[in-house]
C-alpha cells in the first residue's frame, strides 16, 4: 500500500514537473525560429537542465560520484530558476491574452525586445540568473533571530533558559561540509544552555551524509543541558530508523514521543513526525499521552516538526511549541501559499497559554536558494518570573 502511495505521489509530481517545463520550453522556443544558430543550444541546454535534478537523484541511489553531485547541484538550481521562468512566461502570456481582446502591442512593434523576441528571452534568462545567484548567497548566510519570552512561572533553580533552536538543516549533497560547519559554529557561538533541532536534519537519503562524514561536524554541537532533536518528514522519507541511529551516534538525543526533565519543573518533549503513519505504519502519540506522566504545574517545551497540531498543544497547555517544516515558502511568492496552509508559517505567536515559534529553517530543500526570507538560527530566551 505504501509503495502504491509513493508511486502515485511520484507520478503526480513528475507529471506536473514535466508539464511546467514543457510550458516554459515551448514558449522560449518561439524566440528561436528555425535557422537561428541559438536554437539548438537552447534545446540541448533546456533538456539537460530540466532533467538534471531527476538524473542526480537517481544516480545518488545507484552510485554516489562527482557526476551525481553535478546533476544534483545543477538540477537544484534549476528548480528555483524554473519557478521564476514560469512566472515570467505566465506574465508574458497574460499580456498577450489582453492583446488578443484589446490589441495594443502593435503600438510597440518598433521596440527591439518585441521585434527581436530572442533578446527578450536572453534578458529574462539573465534576470533569473542574477535573482537565483542572489538567493543562493542569501541561503548560505543564516541570521541569528533573537526571541524573548516571559514565562509566568516561578523556577527556583534558575531565572532564565537560553535555547538555540534550528530546523530543516537538510544535510546531504547540497547542504554539505562547508555549510554545516558554518551552521554549527554559529550555534556554538551562542553558548546556549540547550540546543534543540526541530526535525528534517537529513535530506531524505542518508548516503551522502555518511559519504561526507557530516555527523563528525554535528557531533561538535555542545550545550550544558544537551542537544536534542525530533524526526521530520524527511527523516521518514529516507528511513527514520537509520537516520535516528546515525544522529544519536553523533551526540543528538532524539525525543520520540517522550519528555525529559531539564530542571525544577521545566521539561522538554518531542513528537514523532506526523508522517510516521504513512511511512512506518504507526500513529504517533497524542500530546496528552506524552505529557500524562508530567505534573500539571510543569512548563513543557515541545518540539513538533510540522506546525499542524498547534491547537492540540494549546489545549494541553504546552508552554512553548517549536516547529519548522514550512521554510516560509523558501522562494517568494510561495510564502503566501504556506501562509494559507498553516496557522503560523513563520515567527512567534501566542495561542491561549501556549507560545508557538515556527522557524523558516537554517538549511534549504531542493534549490540552495532563498528569496524573500533569511535562513535562521533562533536564540530563544525564556525568563521565568513569578506571577
Task: Summarize this structure as a short list of keywords or feature phrases.
alpha/beta, Purple Acid Phosphatase, chain A, domain 2, six-stranded mixed β-sheet, 14 helices, 12 strands
Structure, described:
This protein has 387 residues and is an alpha/beta fold. It folds into two domains: 2-137, no CATH class; 144-385, Metallo-dependent phosphatases (Purple Acid Phosphatase, chain A, domain 2). Helix content is 46%, strand content 17%. The chain has 14 helices and twelve strands. The protein has helices at 2-29, 39-62, 66-101, 112-115, 117-139, 177-189, 207-211, 214-218, 233-238, 240-249, 276-280, 287-291, 310-315, 334-341; strands at residues 143-152, 160-166, 194-197, 227-229, 253-254, 258-263, 266-270, 299-303, 320-323, 347-351, 354-358, 376-385. The strands form two sheets. The chain has a six-stranded mixed β-sheet. Strand 10 and strand 11 form a beta hairpin. Helix 2 packs across helix 3 and helix 3 (66-101) crosses helix 5 (117-139). The chain is elongated and about 80 Å long. The termini are far apart. The mean pLDDT is 91.
